[in-house]
C-alpha cells in the first residue's frame, strides 16, 4: 500500500514495481478521415510515476481521450512509443493491468451492482486474475455496501459511477484510467466522489490518470496536472500540485489551492 504523502515514488517497493507506470516517448496519433488527416497528438513525451495521480486538462479536441486510449491499447500511436509497466500497452492490457472508467458508467442494466462488478472476472482469459478484493469488498470500498443487489436504474448517477469504479478495480489494475468520470454529476456529488476517489487511491496504491475539464477537480485530486494544447494535441506545461495529502474540504479553501487554479486557468487560456 502507498502512503498518502506528496513523495509517492519513494514509497514503492522498487524490487517489484517500475518507477514509471507509463512512459510516453514522442507519442503521435494521426487519424485518417474522409476530410483528410487529423493530428490528434504530436510528440507527447512525459513519464507518469508509479502510484501517482496525474490529471490531463486542455481545450476540447486537444487529445486527452486519445492519449488515454493509447495507454489502454485501444489506439496504436502513429509515431513514438508508449510503455506501460515496462511493457507494451498490449501486454499490459492482456495481463489485465489497466482499468478504465468512462463518463457514462456503462453498466449492464439487467445485472445487479454486484454482478456488474463481477463481470470482468467472467470474461477474458481465465485464471489470469487473482483479485485482492472480492466484488463485494470493492462495493464496500466505494461506499455501496448493502446495495449489492440493486439494479443500475435503482441507483443515482453518482452511485452508478461508484459501481463503475469498483468494476474497474476488480482485476486489481496497476493503472486506473478515468475519462471525465464525474463530468455529468452535480457539483456536491462530484466533490464528494473526488474525496472518495482519493481514499480509494490511497487504499489501492493504483496509478491514476484522470481526464477532466474542471480545473478545481484537477487541482484537488492530483499530484501533477498535465496541460495539453490543441491542433495538434501537444504538451503545454506540467504543473506540480504541491498541496500534500490527505486532502479534504479544507483543501479547497487553502490559498495555495486558489493560486494553483489561477495558474492553470492562465495556462489554459494560452493553450
Ligand atoms: N476515431 C477518430 N477518428 C477521427 N478523428 C478522431 C477520432 N478520435 C478523435 N479524433 C479527433 O482527434 C482529436 C482529439 O480528440 P480527443 O477526443 O482525444 O480530444 P479530447 O481532448 O478528449 O476532447 P474533449 O475534451 O472534447 O473530450 C479531435 O480533433 C477529434 O476530432
Spatial order of strands in the largest sheet: 5-6-7-3-8-9
Total DSSP helices: 8
β-strand number: 9
Termini separation: 37 Å
What's the story with the biggest beta sheet? 6 strands, mixed
**H/E series, N to C?**
EEEHEHEHHHEHEHEEH
Alpha-beta content class: alpha/beta
Helix content: 25-40%
Based on the structure, what is the oligomeric state of the protein chains?
single chain
Mean pLDDT: 90
Briefly, what CATH class of the domain at 16-97 and 175-181 and 207-243 and 254-271? Answer: Alpha Beta
Strand content: 15-25%
Low-confidence stretches: 1-14
CATH-defined fold name of the domain at 16-97 and 175-181 and 207-243 and 254-271 = Rossmann fold
Going by CATH, the homologous superfamily of the domain at 16-97 and 175-181 and 207-243 and 254-271 would be P-loop containing nucleotide triphosphate hydrolases
Ligand identities:
adenosine-5'-triphosphate
Topology, please?
Blueprint (H helix, E strand, L loop, with lengths): L19 E14 L2 E14 L3 E5 L6 H8 L7 E6 L4 H6 L3 E4 L11 H10 L12 H7 L15 H13 L5 E5 L7 H18 L2 E5 L3 H7 L2 E6 L4 E7 L14 H15 L2
Parallel strand pairs: 3-7, 3-8, 5-6, 6-7
Antiparallel strand pairs: 1-2, 1-4, 8-9
Helix pairs in contact: 3-4, 3-5, 4-5, 7-8
Bound molecules: adenosine-5'-triphosphate.
Q: What features would you describe in this structure?
A:
This is NitT/TauT family transport system ATP-binding protein. The protein is globular, with a radius of gyration of 18 Å. The N terminus is likely disordered. The strands form two sheets. It has a six-stranded mixed β-sheet with strand order 5-6-7-3-8-9, sandwiched between helices. The protein has a three-stranded antiparallel β-sheet with strand order 2-1-4. By secondary structure, it is an alpha/beta fold. It has a domain of 144 residues: Rossmann fold (3-Layer(aba) Sandwich). The structure holds adenosine-5'-triphosphate. The site of adenosine-5'-triphosphate has 13 residues, from strand 1, strand 2 and helix 1.
